[in-house]
Amino acid sequence: MIIFGTKSKVVQGHHVQGAECPDCGNRQFSSFGLLKYFHIFWIPFIPTSREAGMQCAHCKKMLVGKELPKPLKRDIKKAIFNGKNTAPMFAGLILFSALVVMIGISGEQRESNTDSYVESPEIGDLYVVNFYKISESANSEYKYGVMRVRQTFEDGVEMDIGGYSYNRSSGSDRAIRKGEVSESGYFEGEPVYLTGDQLASFRESRAILSVSRD
Asked: Most CB atoms closer than 10 Å: which of 47, 74, 93, 199?
């Protein structure tokens, strides 16, 4: 369940003059700012509005927004809505951007590792593959699965084929991550032999999506 919405924060400012209270005629005020922001799980994401206000020091009458003289309103906004007060309202956006960058870097690293592992396979490597791109006789809906390097040779590899298939590649990733591929009976049937050229071709066509290595 994603909880999101908008909230407001009052930012206290300095004492100001330059206007007359419509109720008591006093000319001394304390300024403040109303900072409204969008949040997700109560984490501020981005400011949505900034409004200036002031309160009479005598009768506590509050003047907000258009009730303020334009020059005074501009000065209050400039003084209150500085980097120190507004930067925390971008916390969620900053965290989200950092997460996107980290995911991108992680994805690039995984792609680079996979290319390297396909070029130099080792016993125990786990391949997430699209069986339908390897053979059109495979199930076109549940087409993702796992293969494991059983033996390596100078010109190719012998691979075990997982007995389970998934409709998304994430199913294969999950099976590897949770250790399901280590359970007895996960790999079944006779192993298959693939040459180095076949592995390279399958990688290029994205039949091989990723390779995991302990």
From this structure: 199
In one letter, which amino acid is 137? S
Which tokens hold the place of 49?
């509005």
- Would you give the DSSP letter of residue 146? E
Distance CA 208, CA 67 (A): 66
Q: The domain containing residue 40 runs over which residues?
A: 4-95
* Residue 16 tokens, joined: 């100001």
pTM of the predicted model, to two decimals? 0.62
Q: Could you report the per-residue pLDDT of 61-116, keeping only the tens digit for each?
A: 999 988 998 899 999 999 999 888 888 888 888 888 888 888 888 889 989 999 99
Query: Residue 75 falls within a domain, yes or no?
Result: yes
| Tokens of residue 69, six digits | 């003289």
d(CA 160, CA 207): 16
Longest dimension (CA), the chain: 94
